[in-house]
Specification:
Largest sheet: 9 strands, mixed
Strand content: 15-25%
Shape: globular
Number of domains: 2
Bound molecules: glutamine
Strand order of the largest sheet: 13-12-14-15-23-22-21-18-19
CATH class of the largest domain: Alpha Beta
Distance between the termini: 58 Å
Radius of gyration: 25 Å
CATH superfamily of the largest domain: Class I glutamine amidotransferase (GATase) domain
CATH architecture of the largest domain: 3-Layer(aba) Sandwich
CATH topology of the largest domain: Rossmann fold
Length: 536
Amino acid sequence: MTKFIIVTGGVLSGLGKGVVTSSLGKLLKANGFSVTAIKIDPYLNCDAGTMNPFEHGEVFVLDDGTEADLDLGNYERFLDIDLCGDDNITTGKVYRSVIEKERAGKYLGKTVQIIPHITDEINRRIWKVADETDADIVLVEIGGTIGDIESMPFMEASRQLHMEVGEESNDFIFIHTTLIPVLDVVGEQKTKPTQHSVQALREIGIQPDIIVGRSPKKLEESTKRKISLFCDVPKEAVISSPDAESIYQVPLILEEEGFIDYVMKKLNLGEPEHDIHEWKEFLDNYENPTEKVKIALVGKYCELEDAYKSHVEAFHHCQAEAKTEINIKWIESEELEENEPKKLLDDVDGILIPGGFGNRGIEGKINAVNFARENKVPILTICLGFQVSVIEFCRNVLGLEEANSSEFNEKTPHPVIDLLPMQRGIDMMGGTMRLGSEKILIEEGTRAHEIYGSTEIKERHRHRYEVNLDYKDEMEEKGIKFSGKSPNKKRMEILEVEDHPFFIGCQFHPEFTSRPMKPAPLFLEFIKATMEQKNK
Ligand code: GLN
């Protein structure tokens, strides 16, 4: 029998509910249980693919090509599992299926309503994940905050799910994560907002089993007692989640707080073994690096670090693995159009050009690539970055001054990057790119082969444009090696610039599959190359 843990949020959003949920998953996994996670996003978008990274952070791509909320990335990294589209439920997806069923006449003349039709569809989706994954425990995080109009059907559905599983059973718990603010003047931890949010939960028939209090410091005993009393949970069910220096500390903090003990007791899962030595070792390496490198990340959404979340995480994984502190110098690519690149890039040990869309800042990225190529600074370029590397090479080495991507200039005489054939004629934006994990063949004897140690890999994609094969031979003659290709050899996937300490570009996104203790090979070798260059 699958057990369910539903996590809701109170007081305000952005509390780190996702980190609390994934840390709990980590602790459950460490105790030998199979765990999967569902993220519910109460917005009307069918997926995160059409959302602006400035507003919402990065779009995280899953193996099956789903463009999901970045929280799914947290789950994959903490739980070291691959999720799929079913694990991200949005209001848009739910309504779309209900409306499609209504149009198909499947409701047999009934009035179609939020309760029971929408709530049934939500729970059908949750059960589907439970049945198909056969996980011991399904974690369900309901995005947003109690009281939001959008999240109401999901709250109601989870109340019904609780009834269905059995109110008295040991197979279901509600965890409520809230904010415990501290009044600066007196330094007192205030529980009133939590009391109110629990009250709001109770009004809709949900009594939390556990309350996790987010606060700058650990909760005082008196704070816990108050919450216990007013919110009707035992004191041991009030867990502090103080601010942590890094998200990797959170599982250990929560473990120390007795979180896993109480969860396992409530779910009748026996005594925890508390064996997370691997994670501790990872954290220890992460926190005690012996060297240091500075990497420029040249992007267009640098004001919001979350827009490059998976890149930052991949660097963290490398930091632990290579025991090297990785400092990111955030550079808006437009600044490289206004300034001499040397001015901004002279003090860095390596350059990363991530993916992106649209014209803004492209010339700055080209300048950064040019600087790295000519000055032999290690560089890793990803997706749009890869395409920009091709443009730079064609302009400055092949002498095709107007070389460009047809994404940026439809009339360029040299569309060295051009629309994928399968993209022609597509005018719907959502979910229509080349998406998801695909096989790539790697040529033996190349740097990429050395790095991956294999002639066949799989990596995740998200793009509409690709290298135009008309220019491939000329590029290869002049010093670019396409070392990774699609199985039919029509799609260029990895490029290497010869006679350079480390210049690798990839059309796919290695950042999405980097995990703690298993950093993405391209990231790790890139960092190692920057260390080597620095020490020279
Ligand atoms: N805009 C480019 C394309 O669509 C690159 C996409 C990306 O970097 N994810 O091909």
